[in-house]
Amino acid sequence: EEKGVRMSITTILNVYRRPEHLRYQIEAILNQSVKSDQIWIWVNKSKESDRFDFESINSDLIEEHDIRIVRNNFNWKFCGRFSLACMVDTEYTAIFDDDTMPGVNWYKNCLETIDTVNPRPILGGVGDILRGDCMTYFPLDKEGWSQPNYTAAEVDLAGHAWFFPASYIKYMWLEKPMWENGEDMHFSAMCQIHGGIKTIVPPHAKNDKSRWSSLRGMELGVSDVASYCNNTDKFLEERTDCVKKLRNLGWAPLRV
Predict the structure, then answer these.
(1) Which of 144, 153, 205, 212 could, after both became Cys, cross-link 126 (CB 3.0–4.6 A)?
(2) E strand spans, the chain
(3) Is pTM, for the whole model, over 0.90?
(4) 248 to 134, 189, 229, 242, 252: CA distances (angstroms)
(5) Per DSSP, what are the bridge partners of residue 113?
(6) Cβ of 69: how many Cβ atoms within 10 Å?
(7) CA dihedral over 247, 251, 255, 256, signed as positive or negative
């Protein structure tokens, strides 16, 4: 371990157009069998987050657990919360989408998985494996809560929930991300290109959802404010642009 660093976790939650999920997410983190040392909340500007009464969860949860909130007057999109990760000083960083509620043993699952690969990988809740010539985002195969995997699975990129050694965030910024989309792809590609680091989805067995990264993904991930649902064609077009950019920088998907 690095000097002054102990086995510890900072959790970063993201609030945008679904602030009503925040309390449940905080409770899901506080209920983890492996405790998070810090919970930080990144709030992007939206009409929903502007209207949300953060004081409604302040009195009992936020003050008691020293939860830190960064409220923005701008929507920093997908990468904003990753910029906050630059200030983490625990050993591990965990980041969640705003529709992702982990089972109580998700962090335990991550810690049991992360040391089985050298160097330690990025872990994610849902992984994508590109198909064909790997120059477009579709078609692809999935691993994780949306397509349960019984053993740890290597993937090209992962999202919804991330768990990684905090020092890896430096790779994210070695090339400028595409601000509109693709933070998951960019992070995995930068870690592979510059650090030889793999992306792995820990086991998501159907018979033990306590270890899952997301318990309500099918229910919460399809709301009309979700980026994918909001404008699916534009979303996929942007992600294909991201694939091409990263391939040109040297990213090598598994099937290349």
Answers:
(1) 144
(2) 9-15, 38-43, 68-71, 92-96, 122-130, 140-144, 153-155, 157-165, 199-201
(3) yes
(4) 12, 11, 28, 10, 10
(5) none
(6) 15
(7) positive
Closest-CA residue to 114 (of 186, 168, 41): 168
Q: What is the DSSP string of 176-206?
A: ---TTS-HHHHHHHHHHHHH---EEEPP--T
Confirm if 61 and 67 have CB atoms less than 8 A apart. Answer: yes
List of residues 6+ apart from 135 with CB closer than 8 A: 240, 243, 244, 247
Say whether 43 sits in a helix, a strand or coil: strand
**Region label for 172, one of left (φ > 0), alpha (ψ between -120 and 50) or beta (otherwise):** alpha
Q: DSSP 3-state assignment of 95?
A: strand
The whole-angstrom separation of Cα 81 and Cα 157 is: 18
Of 184, 38, 166, 162, which is closest to residue 107 (Cα–Cα)?
A: 162
Cα–Cα distance for residue pair 107/7, rounded to 1 Å: 12
**What single DSSP character describes residue 121?**
P
pLDDT in tens, 84-140: 999 999 999 999 999 999 999 999 999 999 999 999 999 999 999 999 999 999 999
pLDDT digits (tens, 9 = 90+) for 35-93: 999 999 999 999 999 998 877 776 677 777 889 999 999 999 999 999 999 999 999 99
Query: If phi over 0 gives left and psi between -120 and 50 gives alpha, with beta otherwise, what is residue 66?
Result: left
Give 17 or 137, the one with higher predicted confidence: 137
Instruction: Tell me how far apart the alpha carbons of residues 73 and 152 are, in angstroms, rounded to a whole number.
Output: 39
d(CA 191, CA 162): 13
